[in-house]
Design brief:
- The chain is built from 13 helices and 14 strands.
- β6, α6 and β7 form a beta-alpha-beta unit.
Length: about 425
């Protein structure tokens, strides 16, 4: 659903008790710290919801910005009787506001915030049992692959990586034991674009859960739940936070039973963000729309410049007409995002030289911040898949294109590539 102006609806949390939000923070569209979105009375635009969903002025002082409730515990009125919160790991009003906002932005009934994108991924993986099987896209963030291939494999969870652009290959990979289909689009680092609706339908037919890592696109550019996905995942460290100053993660969905299962893991395992981290992501989300427009415009210009460079053999960016899934990206996404990768004719040595030679564009492993970053995936973020069929090309350079003056970025790449 699209959120908007909400009426408060109390519902039970995962432990079976119903509580209102913490007095002093009038959080619309949620119940207690569930992050659930209530039925909207009217629909507001994305930009309006990013600024207002879950973020009414604070009731006591009228503060226009959600406070940072920097506390680990909450005083109770009587034994077992509290005002909606009892312990900071279980819930915090600042985190509630973030979860409500994220749910609204993803068109979801609920969202859960985590300490990192990997903590969110781990919570989903904890839904699996020994003997279960996961089908995963073959071009995926290295940390995601590492978690399933080297941690949950020891718990008896099997993994098959497949090129999900080929639906027949996905059908062949599905088993009676398949419980999870992991979709990352656009993918990291080759910027493959996958058909979310078709893959979600295949997962549903196989009685498997479909999860879309929406980190590269952000909820502004792409909304997987509306295309049939069961869950959407974010590293909120990236575009949602947007300023390279916080680490966080999130899951959003519509199924209430699934929400309660994940909330149990969230509370039991404790991979939750602190209130200041939640506040930073909430602050970043306010400007997500305008930032993504600039990220996308800059990346398009950089990609077109790179595509014409004689030392560049390939550019991976969905906004280029030559991209194999350009038409799908146009249907599935509002714009094409700020991520791209390119291969140099000189191979790995050239990739490392160029990545080390940029002056304005910083050498770093993250992405999605206002500043531009460059890296060599095989030597940095994707080292866990080196030597496997999932390894990216050694001469691949990945760019997170920021919101600087685009002519300055192109000039920096020109001097680095030579």
């Amino acid at each position: 659903m699209n959120g908007g102006s909400w009426s408060v609806r109390w519902t039970s949390d995962s432990r079976g008790s119903a509580h209102p939000p913490q007095p002093g923070l009038r959080v619309r569209a949620c119940s207690r710290h569930t992050g659930r979105v209530a039925t909207p009375r009217r629909t507001h635009g994305f930009e309006t919801r990013a600024i207002h969903a879950g973020q009414e002025p604070e009731a006591t002082t009228g503060a226009v910005v959600v406070p940072i409730f920097q506390t680990s515990t909450f005083v109770q009125e009587a034994v077992g009787k509290h005002k909606g919160y009892e312990y900071g790991r279980t819930g915090n009003p600042t985190r509630t506001a973030l979860e409500v906002c994220l749910a609204s932005l993803e068109g979801a009934r609920w969202a859960l915030a985590f300490a990192s994108g990997m903590a969110a991924t781990d919570a989903i993986a904890h839904l699996l049992e020994k003997g279960d099987h996961v089908v995963m896209t073959d071009d995926v963030y290295g940390g995601t692959y590492r978690l399933f291939a080297r941690v949950f494999d020891r718990a008896g969870v099997a993994l098959t990586a497949v090129d999900m652009r080929k639906l027949d290959a996905v059908r062949r990979a599905l088993r009676t034991s398949t419980r999870l289909v992991w979709i990352e689009t656009p993918s990291n680092p080759l910027l493959k674009v996958l058909d979310i609706a078709a893959l979600a339908a295949l997962a549903r037919k196989a009685s498997a859960l479909s999860v879309v890592d929406n980190t590269f696109a952000s909820p502004y550019l792409q909304q997987p739940l509306k295309l049939g996905a069961d869950l959407v995942l974010h590293s909120t460290t990236k575009y949602l936070g947007g300023h390279s100053d916080v680490v966080g993660g999130a899951i959003a969905g519509n199924d209430e039973e699934m929400r309660d299962r994940l909330a149990f893991v969230q509370n039991a395992a404790g991979g939750v963000p602190g209130p200041f981290d939640a506040w930073l992501v909430l602050r970043g989300a306010k400007t997500l729309a305008v930032r993504m427009e600039r990220h996308s415009a800059n990346a398009q210009a950089v990609a077109e410049w790179l595509a014409a460079h004689p030392k560049v053999s390939r550019v991976n960016y969905p906004g280029l007409a030559a991209h194999p899934e350009h038409a799908l990206a146009r249907r599935q996404m509002r714009a094409f995002g700020g991520m791209l990768s390119f291969e140099l004719k000189g191979g790995e040595a050239a990739a490392k030289r160029v990545a080390a030679a940029t002056e304005l564009i910083a050498l770093g492993e993250s992405l999605g911040g206002v500043e531009s970053l460059v890296e060599v995936p095989l030597a940095m973020t994707h080292g866990s898949v080196r030597g496997t069929p999932l390894a990216p090309p050694p001469g691949l350079v990945r760019l997170s294109v920021g919101i600087e003056t685009v002519d300055d970025l192109i000039a920096d790449l020109a001097q680095a590539i030579g």
